[in-house]
Each structure stands twice: as structure tokens, then as C-alpha cells.
Amino acid sequence: MYRIGKKLGKGGFGQVYVGRRIGATGPGALEVALKFEHRSSKGCNYGPPYEWQVYNALGGSHGVPRVHYKGRQGDYYVMVMDILGPSLWDVWNNNSHTMSIEMVACIAIEAISILEKMHSRGYVHGDVKPENFLLGLPGTPDEKKLFLVDLGLATKWRDSSSGQHVEYDQRPDVFRGTVRYASVHAHLGRTGSRRDDLESLAYTLIFLLRGRLPWQGYQGENKGFLVCKKKMATSPETLCCFCPAPFRQFVEYVVNLKFDEEPNYAKYISLFDGIVGPNPHIRPINTDGAQKLMYQVGQKRGRLTMEDEEDEQPKKKVRMGMPATQWISVYNARRPMKQRYHYNVADVRLAQHIEKGNEDGLFISSVASCSNLWALIMDAGTGFTAQVYELSPYFLHKVGCVLLIQRLVYCNSCYIYI
Question: What does 175-219 look like in DSSP terms, one character per residue?
């Protein structure tokens, strides 16, 4: 039995309070964190919270708080967890919006090791940000340890039955995460993978170090679009202006990861070794997890060889900043002849691209327009056997398009009003 105390915070799917064991005495005796989630919340779907499954799978994982009890009380699902200390956002905010380079480097080292452990269990967090990294409770042996919380948006990057990477998919109308720190891929509705957690971590580190990200300040309905556009137009050099070189190198590595590419966590950790002090015991953040990871990698390879890459650039630079007026690509390469991507297509040339694709068994799966120029994806995997389209001289709102398509779809054909 616990008595509910002050509110600690609010996560994506629930609220967290201090819980004090009834009958316990003394300051801080048997205090825990109680997370309440209403049975009708989007994280529950009238069953136990999805987050519980993730905690079950990650039980005992480095950097994930321990769960002591899960159950239901009335209309609420309750999870009893270790109580933790301030978030990195709290630390930054209470320190006049500043954080030392060594502190941020230690956070980078330990956060990478936490994500590596989580990824090794087959999950990606999906909402990496300063508010979701917490330190241990002050005055305890864990006060310098880093923890990653709020697993309500975590998803699997690896299929449990086959052990293979999940298939790529893209739904531009679906966004998961926090706009400020989300990866560009998340903005574009692409299936989450390990690269997205690391890109969000990169933005988190730069925010803590510089106090602001270039895309902050946008408001209104188009905020997500404008933030995504700004992220794509911001090069690592611009983003990491006045930051030590390892931060820029880390950004360059992670924004250029492929969808199913395995990140080189040990290499990323090694980038920051020269910034933190040589004695792990006096570092502002406990980096034991990272040290264990480096040791394990060294054992696996016989020895850990880290080349001096201070001036080395990634072999392939996919996103190094681009003019803000260019198209934002919502395309991912597929096998030859399975998918084609056309962009900057004028009205008069649209028909020839569509007809040529139809001749090769390709049909429109996505389409967008701006300033009388078109971008379209033609795909062999749509399941359509025919398509009819009409170029409209008037702009149709999204709802109107959906209703029109619903009225016109018949049999195994697709009618598109563009």
C-alpha cells in the first residue's frame, strides 16, 4: 500500500507521482514512483498499457529503471518503479540554461551505451529528448547514473520471430515523437529504426550544449513541416557551430545512417573520450555502462582499434544541408524497377511519366504538388491492376480527396483525382 504524494511529471501516456509506503518511517523511506494511466488512454486501448510489454522485454537492461509492480486500481493501470532524480532538462534549466562541455560529453557516452543495450533487445525508444533522460535520486549511490524513461512510444526494429530487421514503410500522415528532437525520418513518417534514436540524441546533445536548436520558434499548424524543412536545410557544420569537433562528427555519422544499418556504438563513444577526464570516478556522469560496452567490443575483436578520425568525414554524405526551397524527399530507394520517383514534373509532362510507369506495371502510390510542379512515387507493390486519374484545376482539401477516392475506388482499381 502506498500513499500518493506530489506529482513528479507527465509522460506521453500517463502521470507520475511520488508514492510512500504506508507504515514506513524516516525521511525518504521506501519512496517509489507511481505511474498512473487511465484505461481509456491511447496507450492502453482498453487493455494493459503497451509500455508494460516494453518494460517486460527490457527488464534489467542498463539505464532502464526497475519496475516493482504492475496492476490495476479502478479505472487506472498503476506501475510502481524506482524513484529517480531530475531530468537533464531540469538540470539544464536550473543551471541558467547552460551545461559544461564535459558534462554533455559524459551524457553522450552513457546515453549511447543505454541506447545500444535497448537496441540489442530489439527495441528503439522513439522519443529521445532531455526530458526523458533522468539522473538517479540525489544523495543515493545512483545520483550520477543516467536513466532513460517513458517507453510508451518504443517500437521493435527487429522481428521477434525471424530475428530480421522490420520492413521499411512510410506513412507521411503519421508522426511519433517530439517535434524539436525527432529525426527527419520520423517527420516523413518512415518506419522507426536505430538511426532515429541516435539522430534524436544528437539534437539533444546540441541543445544541452548550445541552449537552442535552429528550428525552435515555429508555431501554428505547419510547425512540423517547417521544423522538418529547417532540419533538412541545416548542415552539421551549422548545427554544431562553436561546438567541439566530436559533436559535429557524431551528427554527421548518425544523420547518414541507412534504415537497417547497424550503428557503430563503440566508435561514437570513442569520439568523446578526448573531452571527458581520464578518471571515470570523478566524471559528472557515471559512464560504467559505456566502459563495459567498450570492453566487450574489445574482447570480441581481440583488441579495440580506434583510428584517429578527428578530421575524417563519413564516406557518404547524404544530408549536409540543402537550399530550403528544394523538395523535401519522401522517397526511399527500393529494388530496381519496383519503384520510381519523379519530382519537379510540370503539368504538361505529368501524363507521360504516369503512362510510362503504367506500361511497366507501376502505379501511383504517393503524390504531392507545389507551385504547379509535381512529385510522385510509382510502385509495383500497390496491388492495383489499373488507375484512372484526372488533373484538377482546383485545390482539393485532404478530406475532400479522401471522400472522393472512397466513392471512386471499385474492385482492384484506384481512381486518383489530382
Answer: --S-TTT--HHHHTTBPP-HHHHHHHHHHHHHHHHHS--TTTT--
* Look-up of cell digits 551545461: 99
Query: Global pTM?
Result: 0.72
Q: Within 10 Å of residue 292's Cβ, how many Cβ atoms?
A: 13
Domain hosting 208: range is 86-299
CA atoms within 13 A on the CB side of 30: 11
Lookup: cell for 203: 539534437
Nearest residue to 67 (alpha-carbon basis) of 55, 53, 83, 81: 81
Do residues 352 and 222 share a domain? no
Assess if residue 238 is contained within a domain.
yes
Which is the catalytic residue, given 75, 82, 90, 127? 127
Q: How would you write the pLDDT of the chain (418 residues) with one tens digit per residue?
A: 888 999 998 766 789 999 988 876 555 558 999 999 998 887 787 789 999 999 999 988 899 999 999 999 999 999 999 999 999 999 999 999 999 999 999 999 999 999 999 999 999 999 999 999 999 999 999 999 999 999 999 999 999 999 999 999 999 888 999 999 999 999 999 999 999 999 999 999 999 999 999 999 999 889 999 999 999 999 999 999 999 999 999 999 999 999 999 999 999 999 999 999 777 777 888 887 666 666 565 555 544 444 444 445 555 455 555 444 444 444 444 444 478 888 888 888 888 889 888 888 899 988 888 877 888 898 888 888 888 887 777 665 555 454 444 444 443 444 454 5
What's the rounded Cα separation, in Å, for the pair 399 and 293? 50
> Which parts are annotated binding residues?
35
Same domain assignment for residues 403 and 259: no
Q: How many CA atoms lie within 13 A of 347 on its CB side?
A: 8
Distance CA 57, CA 60 (A): 9
User: Taking a C-beta distance cutoff of 8 angstroms, is the pair 382, 363 a contact?
Assistant: yes
- Does the annotation mark 75 as catalytic? no
SS3 322: coil
Annotated binding site for ATP: 35
**Which CATH number belongs to the domain containing residue 200 in this structure?**
1.10.510.10
